[in-house]
Amino acid sequence: MSKTEQMTMEEVFSKLRSLQEILSEKFEIEREMEEIPKILATRTELLNRMKKSYLEKTQEYETKGRIKKNCATRHWKQKGCGRASSSRWT
Q1: Structure letter (DSSP) for residue 84
Q2: Residues 6+ apart with CB under 8 A from 81
Q3: HEC-encoded secondary structure of 44-76
Q4: Of 17, 28, 70, 82, which is the most exposed, with the fewest CB atoms less than 10 Å away?
């Protein structure tokens, strides 16, 4: 094999290695692209559960706040509302 042929063979092998690396990267990117819809669906489901939980806790908090406010208002208007009445209020 002449020097020129050997150089050409080395260049070809170098080019093939480079193309093989590029193909490997391409396949990895394609795999990641296939995973994106699954990841998005999972995260969307998680977000929806978190929103639902937030709304439930907010509603619970607001309900408790209204009950306490109503209880305090009623206490001044009438006896009790869960509290022991004292002789001052009678």
Answers
A1: P
A2: 71, 72, 74, 75
A3: HHHHHHHHHHHHHHHHHHHHHHHHHHHHHHHHH
A4: 82
Question: Which residue, chain included where needed, has tokens 């009790």?
Answer: 80
Q: Sign of the CA dihedral 82, 84, 89, 90?
A: positive
pTM: predicted TM-score of the whole model, two decimal places: 0.51
Q: Could you tell me if 79 and 90 are in contact, meaning their C-beta atoms sit under 8 angstroms apart?
A: yes
Tokens at 62, concatenated = 């607001």
Q: What is the DSSP letter of 20?
A: H
Structure tokens that stand for 26 in this block: 């391409």
**Spatial distance between the Cα atoms of 57 and 59, rounded to a whole number of angstroms:** 5
**Model pLDDT, residue 45:** 98
Q: What is the pLDDT of residues 34-87, one digit of tens each?
A: 999 999 999 999 999 999 999 999 998 888 877 777 776 666 666 555 555 455
